[in-house]
Amino acid sequence: MKRILTTLFFVVVIAGAISAQTVTAVTTAAGTLQSVLTTAPDKVVALVVQGPVDAGDLEFINTKMTSLESLDLKGVTIEAYYGAGHAINGVQRYDANYLPEMIFAGLRAKTLTLPLTDKLRIGEGAFVGASLTAVTIPATVGTVDAFSFSGCKALQTVTLAEGVQSVGAYAFHWCTSLREISLPDSVQEIGNHAFAYCKSLKHVHLSTGMTRISNTAFSGCESLQCVEIPDSVTEIATQAFQDCVALEQLEIPASVQKIGEGVFDGCVNLQQLSILNPDCEIFDLETTISSAARIRGMSVSTAHEYASKYERAFTPMDRLRGDFDGDGELTLNDAFSVLAAYARSAAGNPDALTDLEQYAADYDGDGTVALEDAFGILQAYSKNAAGNGCASGSV
Question: Smallest Cα–Cα separation from 59: which of 25, 27, 23, 90?
Fold first, then answer.
């Protein structure tokens, strides 16, 4: 008897599991989802909808289908909603082709397929706090509005198709499980805080259609290691990468004309920041670039001026090690100048070398000016003079 009961128990459990995964497919007309559904709303686990729906249908899905794990709206068109007797989030009228603001806030489903409706708009906060683990934004979506997926803490993967044009402010803010984002070249704009505090985000590929990285766009992304900034970008706005503590290297292309306040503040492991535009406007505040950063730039540049003013380590990109006088080649004069600087230092009367002179004099790059540096320069010069080498040092 006990064995029979045990067997019966497992049969019931297995049958329940199979039933729970059954896909509920419905074909609707706008406003009819509740009436055409043949399954109790709270028992629906996987839902596929075909046909026209409106905001009332979408609200019904989110508020009544409390067991929902998968939602497929690929075959849906969204019609205008005129709810004279029923306001949704305080609004009685919604346009067609629009996922209304907050309509799926707190959605329990883990997977989602969005409608392929042309020029679909995802409204402000449409999926805020949802349980989604992955989402694909199709090419038919022109705009991902502000806060659309903010606080989706289980969201690991976001795929934006070529055709999406803008990502609004706070759109993926606090998506703490998101690991990577690649913005297609159709994206022209991302709003303030768009990916801020995505604490698991490691890799970012930006669109070549963007001209500006907005305020605090990636602020607080504490796992961020790799960012590719395209040549289309002309401005990196206030605190765009603030507190990206895992960021170690970054190259800012020559197209960038302006670096805003606090852009790299708190980037405590930023070892090398290359600024290729010698005339780039850098916000004049000590916290704009972390004190940990070694700045690379041209000898005559705003990057060098900033580094000198705020005592940041600086590496000239156009100055050879060993070229003490800055004439572009290694000569006897360079060797003798380095030797004289070493001698005075050894005698207790060190020269006050500029950072460029210090860089050039340290021929072997070990952090000190010594006899070996002068001899290294002399050797390089001798080889070049004899036709057995070139008198170029290392940069």
Answer: 90
Q: Where are the alpha helices (DSSP H) in the chain?
A: 2-20, 33-36, 55-64, 302-309, 332-346, 355-361, 371-385
pTM confidence score: 0.82
Which has the closest alpha carbon to 182: 205, 202, 150? 205
Structure tokens that stand for 247 in this block: 């960021």
40-55 pLDDT tens trace: 999 999 999 999 999 9
Question: Token digits for 169?
Answer: 């402010």
The Cα–Cα gap between 77 and 98 comes to 10
Nearest Cα residue to 256 out of 239, 230, 233: 233
Cα distances (angstroms) measured from residue 255 to each of 210, 212, 250, 279:
12, 11, 14, 10
Residue 357's contacts (CB-CB under 8 Å, 6 or more residues apart) are: 324, 341, 351
Q: In what order do the strands lie in the sheet with 249-252?
A: 249-252, 272-275, 294-297, 313-316
- Predicted confidence at residue 395, as pLDDT, reads 52
pLDDT of residue 21: 52
Per the CB < 8 A criterion, the answer to whether 275 and 296 are in contact is yes
